[in-house]
Specification:
With 221 residues, this protein is of the alpha/beta class. 48% of the residues lie in helices and 11% in strands. It folds into two domains: 10-127, Rossmann fold (3-Layer(aba) Sandwich), CATH 3.40.50; 130-214. The chain starts with 9 loop residues before the first strand and ends in a 20-residue tail after the last helix.
Length: 221
Amino acid sequence: MTETMEILASILIVEDDPKQLKLYARALRGYRLTCVSTGTAALKALAEMKPDLIILDNILDAGERGVEFLPRLKSVAAHVPIIVISGTLKIQEQLAALQGPRSAHFTLDKPVDLDELDRTVEIALTECGFGETVAALQSLERAEKIEASEPDRRFTERLARQYEMIKRLRGAAARPNISELARDFNVARKTIIRDLQDLIQRGQLPGEIYPEWNQETANEE
């Protein structure tokens, strides 16, 4: 496919301050942004989409506190990294937000340093979340000495391939070339199509990059 389009990582911003939202809009122009003002609204948004990253303010509308929503947000989007931003959290509270099974990946103080925010967002998108999940599965396979022919190994290889596809397609100037991807990953075209279907269905890529994503692939060679 040669039609051009921009494939951007998606960020869910949970923030009630209009000035802060304007700041994020300027600083994060290279991403698809969805903004809500409460943790409750964030949970509703996650029922419809799975962003690549969540930026979570602590003091929100309706008297809600972002850190109190951390466990609930992670329970529905465990693979999505979270950056907590606050000007009110003490050091011990920041450490608590970073500890445990349903914790944030990073905390940043207000006023936010935009260069630090940019670096943190880049690290979160490239090294955390889905990438961590793949790395953990690969580590478990090595520990269990799972053979390449086993179904569990094939599942991990599929996730690893999809993770690499996401990184390649973000920022691309054209729609994905199915044949080229199949050659590069040494798999059949139908495998790449199914990977794209998985990624689009999970909300990790926008459906418009491959409009045929919801069609059958049984006849693909």
